[in-house]
Amino acid sequence: MVRRVVSICALVAAIASVAGVASAEEWDRGNRTARADDRGEVKDCTRFNGRWGYYGNPWCTPEEQARWDRWSSRKH
């Protein structure tokens, strides 16, 4: 009986540590994105199609598209 309780406690501790590592990796990924924004890296969100067409980029979020537009207007 004691072995079973110890085994269950060890299993719960292992699962908790894996969940903690996963959340730490996600937090770090979010911080890397924030650091990339701080450095001024801009994702290429060149707009596609033209003349009465779509005028956008399906692989960019609206925030990325706005940032690209601001960067390209300053560049030109």
Written account of the structure:
This protein is an all-alpha fold and 76 residues long. The protein has two domains: 1-41; 44-76, no CATH class. The chain contains two helices and no strands. The radius of gyration is 23 Å and the shape is rod-shaped. It starts with a helix and ends with a helix.
DSSP E strands, number: 0
Element-by-element helix/strand order: HH
Oligomer: single chain
Tally the structural domains: 2
Poorly predicted sequence stretches spanning 5 or more consecutive residues:
none
As a percent range, the share of strand residues is under 5%
Number of helices: 2
Q: Radius of gyration, rounded?
A: 23 Å
Task: Bin the helical content.
Answer: 55-70%
